[in-house]
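Design a sequence for this backbone.
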C-alpha cells in the first residue's frame, strides 16, 4: 500500500507483540488477612515514630524553657491558643497538627543565648538586646534544612514570631501578610499569654484587660484579621486561660504544703 501523509499506517503485528497480547497476567495469590496485618503493623510503627517525633520536639522546647524558667507552662498554653486560632481560621487538620506541635518551639533558639542575658533581672543594654534578638535566627537555622514538615514549621515560627504587622519587628522587619501565617498566629498567642501571666519583672493583667490590650495592637503589632478571629473565639480562649490558672494554683498550693 502506498504511503499517504496523515493516514495512520496499520501497525505491523510482530510475533512478539501478538504473544504479549495473548499472555494473561499472572494470578496474584493475596492473603488478605496477612496484608491487613502488615498494614496494621506499618500504621502502628508510623504512629509510634510520629509520637516519638512529637515527644522529642516537646523535650527540646522544655530544654529551652529551662534556660528561661520564668515562663513555666507558657509553651503549652502557646500551643493551645495557637491551635484554637488555627482551627477558627479553618486550617486543615495536618496544618493544625503542625501548628500545635511546632508553636511550643518558638523560643528554641534561646538555647544559644547566654544565661547572663537570658536571666538578667534588670533591663538589657542595647548590645544585650541585640544578642537576645538572635534567638529567632538561631532557632530558624537549627531546623532550616530539616526534611520533616514539623521541624520546617519550627524553623518558620522561630524566625517569624517577633515580626510585627506594621514592619517594626525583628529580625527581618517583615510587614503585613508577608509575615508567614504561623508566625502571625504565634505572635498573637505569645503576646496574649505574656500579658496575662506573671513574670519576675511584672504582675499578670486580668483576662479582660489582656484581651483589650490585644485589640489595641490590631494593625500595629498584630494582624487585625487574626485579632478579630481571636475576639470571636474569646470563650475558648477563656477556657484555656482558666484551666491553666487552676493548674497554676494547684502547683502553688502543693509548693506551700511541701515547704
Ligand atoms: Fe521569642
Ligand atoms: Fe514565648
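Sequence:
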Amino acid at each position: 500500500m502506498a504511503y499517504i501523509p496523515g493516514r495512520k499506517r496499520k501497525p505491523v503485528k510482530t510475533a512478539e507483540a501478538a504473544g504479549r497480547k495473548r499472555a494473561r497476567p499472572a494470578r496474584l495469590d493475596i492473603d488478605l488477612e496477612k496484608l491487613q496485618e502488615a498494614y496494621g503493623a506499618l500504621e502502628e510503627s508510623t504512629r509510634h515514630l510520629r509520637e516519638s517525633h512529637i515527644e522529642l520536639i516537646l523535650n527540646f522546647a522544655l530544654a529551652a524553657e529551662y534556660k528561661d524558667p520564668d515562663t513555666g507552662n507558657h509553651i503549652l498554653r502557646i500551643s493551645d491558643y495557637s491551635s484554637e486560632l488555627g482551627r477558627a481560621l479553618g486550617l486543615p487538620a495536618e496544618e493544625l497538627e503542625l501548628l500545635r506541635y511546632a508553636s511550643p518551639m518558638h523560643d528554641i533558639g534561646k538555647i544559644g543565648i547566654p544565661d547572663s542575658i537570658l536571666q538578667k533581672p534588670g533591663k538589657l543594654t542595647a548590645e544585650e538586646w541585640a544578642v537576645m534578638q538572635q534567638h529567632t535566627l538561631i532557632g530558624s537555622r537549627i531546623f532550616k534544612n530539616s526534611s520533616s514538615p514539623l521541624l520546617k514549621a519550627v524553623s518558620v515560627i522561630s524566625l517569624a514570631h517577633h515580626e510585627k504587622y506594621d514592619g517594626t519587628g525583628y529580625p527581618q522587619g517583615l510587614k503585613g501578610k508577608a509575615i508567614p501565617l504561623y508566625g502571625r498566629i504565634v505572635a498573637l498567642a505569645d503576646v496574649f499569654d505574656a500579658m496575662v501571666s506573671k513574670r519576675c519583672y511584672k504582675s499578670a493583667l486580668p483576662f479582660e484587660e489582656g484581651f483589650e490590650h490585644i485589640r489595641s495592637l490590631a494593625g500595629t503589632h498584630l494582624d487585625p484579621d487574626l485579632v478579630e478571629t481571636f475576639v470571636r473565639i474569646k470563650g475558648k480562649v477563656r477556657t484555656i486561660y482558666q484551666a491553666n490558672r487552676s493548674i497554676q494554683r494547684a502547683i502553688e498550693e502543693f509548693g506551700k504544703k511541701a515547704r
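Confidence is low (pLDDT under 50) at residues 1-8.
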